[in-house]
Design brief:
By secondary structure, this protein is an alpha/beta fold. Helices cover 32% and strands 23% of the residues. The protein has a domain of 311 residues: FAD/NAD(P)-binding domain (3-Layer(bba) Sandwich), CATH 3.50.50. Its cofactor is FAD.
């Protein structure tokens, strides 16, 4: 794939293309790869550069109404997203640049449950207009793209309304010590029929109401360049936030306009609600980590990492009339962890040198382990040895490998385990992405998010905690020390968004119920499509990138079959014309 940055030399340029894809994250790149392979001319328009940078990160600014504390969000999202700031991105986590969100994700992947697609009479606006069976082949293909195993470890728990649930992690194709980064792992393999323009932010969709088609895209660069793209077809693949913002900022997408007659664009924003349910003490941490930690499974010539958790079974959801959700354990660092103390000493920022030095000495074994991991990551380590060591470690000590990765290769002293919960949020019309009065550096209105949870999510969390307590007691496992709000129905849990934004251009059979149809085509437009989480009517509880890619690959096949029909129609018309003029 040819990649270049827009500059002032391009100012005023007009570029024609068969397929324009707005956004070069995992969804945009996946669609580009498949369509290019089918012979379609593809132009990717990426707002950022190859990697994140401060200037383009500033374009991610978003306001939010009634969100939880910045500190809680920073603790959850901060370790992975290097340039992300909880004040600037008061809702969600977005990364501008080739590969999009995979520059900062955890690689955690799982597919949705059948109940996630069903209309549930206790969940308003639930139900997908397509069936899970229609997505099954694309889920398998997306799993292959992510390098995931189709096999799962043997389930270990089925009790008290809960079932074993496994997330697995998408590993890099080129760096066994890292997660898959689509800009590095997938983009280089896309053929020459695709081109990617960087620093190319789409600011407006031009729409011809007479033809019912997108006529052009207005594109701006931070260098000051402005260009126009004239595509035959367009796919919006810029995230649930940006897909909605771009449509709302364009005349055709404003409330009541041609592509938003029912004021559905930006609405029904869903995410995953995350919170801590309780704690397990240090004395039981090792035992529970073995059961609910990380496991490995060999498939396709490599070892795959899985995290074991517990999910609500469908029968419990129906009986209790609750949402879907799951729990897992996360490690908690001890106050006398040696690594922060060593960092303070090395940077000469220690306020208590003697105390920090003593802490480092007591934790010298951990420091030595960290040094060994850093040596393994060194570019001087032979690749064959590196891969052999990593494969053996994943097979034999998967919990240790996960710990090393999560801490950046610096093992930490632990004080116990926290029981973390993730639940879907009900699709509510009032939860939405809207436009604020403030403008970004390109003169575009900044988005504003309204995302609130309610009784449905809070009751689901309490049922999950009760099920955990019952199940753990029955199995003679240590029951967590639960958060006080769980037993107080008048208390509100402290909830943060999990940065899994979905639903703002939701899929529906009719324009009165959603924004795109079952082919992801925007209602009212012949050649405009949306992709990614924005088309999801509901979000389940699973980390959604795997499902984003499955729906994207289904759209890509639709686009390629559409192209084949157009080619055949053109050939037939040419044949008729030739026959007419030759007699």
């Amino acid at each position: 794939m040819k990649t270049r940055r827009i500059d002032l030399a391009d100012n005023g340029a007009v570029i024609a293309t068969d397929l324009a894809i707005v956004g070069a994250g995992p969804v945009g790149l996946a669609i580009a790869e498949r369509c290019e392979r089918a012979g379609i001319e593809v132009l990717l328009l990426e707002s950022g550069l190859e990697q994140q940078d401060p200037a383009h990160e500033a374009l991610n600014e978003i306001f939010a109404a009634a969100m939880d504390s910045a500190d809680a969000r920073a603790e959850f999202h901060g370790p992975q997203a290097k340039l992300w700031d909880p004040q600037r991105q008061a809702y969600g986590v977005r990364c501008r640049g080739l590969g999009g969100s995979t520059q900062a994700w955890a690689g955690k992947s799982a597919s949705f449950d059948p109940i996630d697609f069903e209309p549930r009479d206790w969940v308003a606006s639930s139900g997908w207009p397509i069936k899970l069976q229609e997505l099954a082949p694309y889920i398998a293909q997306a799993g292959e793209m992510l390098g995931l195993s189709p096999d799962l470890p043997v389930p270990a728990v089925e009790a008290a309304g809960l079932r074993s649930f496994y997330w697995q992690f998408a590993g890099s194709r080129v760096d066994r010590l890292d997660l898959m980064r689509f800009g590095r792992d997938l983009a280089p393999g896309i053929g020459e029929g695709a081109q990617c323009l960087l620093d190319a932010t789409v600011t407006e969709i031009g729409f011809n109401e007479a033809s019912g088609e997108v006529s052009d895209l207005h594109v701006a660069s931070l260098t000051g360049a402005r260009i126009t793209v004239r595509p035959r077809r367009v796919v919006l693949a810029a995230s649930a936030i940006e897909n909605a913002r771009l449509m709302l900022a364009s005349p055709c997408g404003r409330a009541g306009a041609a592509l938003n007659r029912y004021d559905n664009v930006g609405r029904y924003l869903v995410d995953h609600a995350g919170t801590r349910l309780g704690l397990i003490g240090r004395e039981d941490a090792a035992r529970m980590s073995r059961l609910f930690g990380f496991q490995s499974l060999a498939y396709g010539g490599r070892s795959h990492m899985f995290q074991h958790g517990l999910a609500l079974d469908p029968a419990t959801q129906r009986r209790q009339r609750i949402l879907n959700g799951a729990v897992w354990f996360a490690q908690q660092r001890a106050p006398d962890d040696p690594w922060p103390a060593l960092e303070r000493l090395l940077r000469r920022r220690s306020a208590a040198v003697g105390s920090d030095f003593a802490t480092v000495l007591r934790g010298s074994g951990l420091v030595l382990r960290g040094a060994a991991v850093k040596a393994l990551a060194s570019p001087h380590m032979p690749e064959a040895i590196r891969r052999a060591v990593i494969e053996a470690a994943i097979r034999i000590l998967p919990n240790a490998v996960a710990d090393e990765f999560q801490t950046g290769g610096l093992p930490h002293k632990l004080s116990g385990l926290s029981l973390e919960a993730i639940v879907e949020t009900a699709p509510r019309r009032e939860n939405r992405i809207d436009l604020s009065d403030r403008l970004d550096a390109l003169g575009q209105p900044l988005p504003c998010a309204t995302w609130r949870t309610g009784e449905e999510e809070h009751r689901t969390l309490r049922v999950m905690a009760s099920s955990v307590a019952e199940s753990f007691a029955a199995n003679d496992w240590p029951v967590p020390d639960f958060e006080p709000w769980i037993d107080d129905v008048n208390a509100t849990p402290s909830i943060i968004d999990c940065a899994h934004s979905m639903g703002t251009t939701r899929m529906a059979s009719t324009p009165s119920e959603g924004v795109v149809d079952t082919d992801c085509r925007v209602h009212g437009a012949a050649n405009l499509f949306a992709a990614g989480g924005s088309v999801f009517p509901t979000g389940g509880h699973a980390n959604p990138t795997w499902m984003y890619l499955a729906v994207a690959l289904r759209l890509a096949d639709h686009l390629t079959s559409q192209s084949a029909c157009l080619v055949n129609d053109t050939r037939a018309a040419s044949a008729r014309h030739l026959e007419a003029i030759t007699g």
